[in-house]
Amino acid sequence: MARNPKSRSLRTRLVLSGLAGMLLSAVVVAALLGAAFERSVLAAFDRRLADDLLTVAGLVTADGRDRVRMRGEPLDSRYARALSGHYWRVSADGQAFRSTSLWDSDLPQPAMPVVGQVGIAYVNGPGPLDQTLRIASREIDVPGVAAPVRISVASDVGETLADVARFRVMAGVAGALVAAALLAALLAQATFGLRPLREITQALEALRSGRARKLQSARFPREIRPLADELNAVLEHNDRMVERARTGAGDLAHALKTPLSVMLAAADRGDANLGTIVADQVVRIRENVDRHLAVSVPADRQSRTRLTDVVQAVVAMLSSVHGDRSLVFDVDLAPELEFHGSRADLEDMLGNLLDNACKWARRTVRVSATLDGGELAVAVSDDGPGVPEAALSTILQRGKRLDEATPGSGLGLAIVSALADSYGGRLELSPAGESGLRATLVLPGGRTAAD
User: Residue ranges of the domains in the chain?
Assistant: First the structure.
């Protein structure tokens, strides 16, 4: 069964959840207000009944024969008017005295326990003319009377209960009106609060259509800016990947020109060693293709690579390759440093830098690394002849070589620079002291727990 598209709307969810909460709150508040009002009104009602009961109790005395008599009746005219809704009754050992207002009726006599205010028990019961009475009762001991004397005072509580019911209705209506006002405020809040999401949607549409190159994070609220910044980082990463792919394709085309030209020239002149030449150039083509395909793979920012593992592996390999020169590798690395990227890319970058350093070093190749914030700086230096400062920018250009006598295609440092750039890093070249060259690779990195 397909879901209603509105149910997936963030605005609709906010409004519906807010409405449910407001309705529940309104019902609870109305119920609590009604209960508090009822308790307050009945407490005042009961205090008045208690006062009347004590007034009647003050008129009770003994007749000298262990029986009860009344010294008079309360002066309150309500107890003298027939069926007025206000009544009293005094009883003891079969005797009963009643207010004139009861006429020919009587008060209900519920079971006592004696509870409540100053020993007074309160109950509701039926009265004359279908009245709803609130009855206050108490048993007292009167000197000279053998049996306990029970005194009851009652008043019609129906109108009071009706007032309570009306108040509950008014509280419910007020709660509904407050909920409606809050709902209107919630709608305005949701509309205003979610407007930045609509704006970021429009900004993304502008990106997709090519009208913009990145999001202007400063125009968004503080809570949205991190999202805009992360989207910009993704866009920049994607641009670097596209540029990396284009550069890789150009480098590959450049690397294939020479072996293709060699084979074409050999074929044109009918060289007797054509087969050997073709076989050698095919091997070279295959190596170039493999190398450039590896470089064109998108940067992997999710992987984590221990720096010491890669440096040790590359140094071990180059020690074997350049074993006849007795080079010394001075490695100074903290074991917990790591590169935020793939091991293969780090091997390609450090392999090129270390191999280049080995070619020019007289005796020593040094590797060190530092971590500043989220930037890992890996420095590879040699004690060779070095490079003039004016030529440092030249050797990073693809195909540029300062010494044509040294084997190589001139693409190594340029490829390292392109790989570093794809991770948002960079390759920096500088003199290494009095002689030699220092290549510093700045990459995203961090620390991991040391083994």
Answer: 11-164, 222-298, 300-447
